Amino acid sequence: MVNRNFPEFCTPKVSGPHVESLKNYALPDFILSLVAKECDSDLAKRGRTDKKLHSMNEESLELLYRIFIKCDKNESGQYARYRFYAYVASMYYKCEVLINEILPGKSGNNYKVPVAVKSNGMYISVAVNKDTGKQVNRRDTAKFYHMVDDIKNGEQGTMLTDAIYASSVGFKGESLVEIERLSAARNNDDPENKLNFKTAYFENDIYSIA
Q: What angle do CA 68, 72, 74 make, to 5 degrees?
């Protein structure tokens, strides 16, 4: 199953300068802001995407082009993270997408969540991505499940309904079996307890549900 709102980055519709290619993609404002900050670039606060892109410097446009059009990889996994941010944002249109949010669990532990999504001031989704290294294994998904369950039962997790584990390096079969087993053991008949666990992998320049 493919998320149709997520652009197939490596198939630009318009040839020519970087702006002409990039403006066809629904790049969220917060990603433009992150790249502008990294490249010490100006960024128009208002206007259409092409206006904002034209306000950015050459370095930032080149970086956006490498990440979203060429789908380059880099050793730190930063490019994969930006694509992951865009994927999650495409799933929650008009919601607030927060990066590296600290969320408390019922246990008293605080968790640094790579992406958290808010709607009407309430957290509705959390998401993580494995950017580099080996494929996601059973231990990884079990750790993710227990983190999300703890957050769900904490004071800020009341409206949390979705949990997404994405991977740019793939999943081992055991990891998918484990997250399915743990999810099936929940009492999802109770709306207050319900959590939808989803796994997605980046392959052939698009995120797909695993």
A: 120
Percent of the chain past pLDDT 90, that is, above it, reads 77
Contact 97, 109 (CB under 8 A): no
Residue 159 tokens read as 């409206």
CB atoms within 10 A of CB 147: 19
Here the tokens at position 116 are 């958290």
Q: How far is CA 93 from the centre of its chain?
A: 13
| Token output for 17 | 């300068």
Give residue 117's Cα distance to chain centre: 10
User: How close are the terminal C-alpha atoms of the chain, in Å?
Assistant: 8
What confidence tier does 141 reach under pLDDT thresholds 50, 70, 90?
A: very high
Question: Sign of the C-alpha dihedral, residues 14, 82, 26, 51?
Answer: negative
Q: Are 208 and 8 in contact (CB under 8 A)?
A: no
**Alpha carbon separation from 133 to 53, 77, 136, 173 (Å, rounded):** 32, 9, 9, 16
Q: Tell the burial category of 155 from Cβ atoms under 10 Å away from its Cβ (0-12, 13-18, 19+).
A: exposed
Query: Rounded distance, CA 145 to CA 93, Å?
Result: 25
Could you read off the pLDDT of 119-131 as tens digits, one per residue? Answer: 999 999 999 999 9
